[in-house]
Amino acid sequence: MNIVSGNTIAIARQVIPREQLDLTIKEFFETAFEEKDYQIDRKITEVLKAVNFNAPTNKPIKEFSGGQQARLLLAYAMIQRPDILLLDEPTNNLDRNGIGDLISFLMEYDKTVVVISHDADFLNLFTDGVLYLNKARCQVEQYWGDYYDVVEQIAAQIEKEQMQNARAEKKIADAKEKINFFSNK
């Protein structure tokens, strides 16, 4: 993934912060912008339609279900029109229809989306690449292919590295054995 200077990033979080639950939908979306947006009503209508959610914008967020709030979180990120959309466990609190709507959205979205999820079947439906956080190397590795293909690639890479490590450990053990042999003479 190549992030160009000046690209914007928006995050669809897992939950709406407690201090924002008393806000109305409109007030919630207004917090996405530093300055007053005179097109906010039109933009709200667009993003709510995109996430298949219809509700009065003067209704407090706390009155919506977890799944409805999840749709609002996605819409909140979308209203910012980011170059990169970061979704943190986006299927949490969504029912089957909500997940279907999310998948449709992701397949049609024309910009970069980074999804953090533990749902392999969900990821496999729309991914064409995976960023793998390699803890052993302390680096991010990029793989291409659908999710299951990437899992196989990563497993093969790990197996290869384990074999290399085993050979290196054997060489070290052999070297120690030789050192001990000659030091005892």
Shape verdict: elongated
| Largest sheet report | 3 strands, parallel
Q: With helices defined by DSSP (H or I, 4 residues minimum), what is the helix count?
A: 6
Q: In which range does the helix fraction lie? A: 40-55%
Overall CATH class of the domain at 9-126: Alpha Beta
What's the average pLDDT? 89
Give unreliable regions as ranges.
none
Return the CATH topology of the domain at 9-126: Rossmann fold
Please list the strands of the largest sheet in the order they lie side by side.
1-2-3
Q: Cα distance, first to last residue? A: 58 Å
Beta percentage is 5-15%
Got a strand count? Answer: 5
Radius of gyration computed on alpha carbons: 24 Å
Order of helices and strands: EHHHEHEHEEH
CATH architecture descriptor name of the domain at 9-126: 3-Layer(aba) Sandwich
Task: Describe what you observe in this structure.
By secondary structure, the chain is of the alpha/beta class. It has a domain at 9-126: Rossmann fold. The chain is 46% helix and 14% strand. The protein has 6 helices and 5 strands, in the order βαααβαβαββα. The strands form 2 sheets. A 3-stranded parallel β-sheet has the order 1-2-3. The protein has a two-stranded antiparallel ribbon with strand order 4-5. The mean pLDDT is 89.
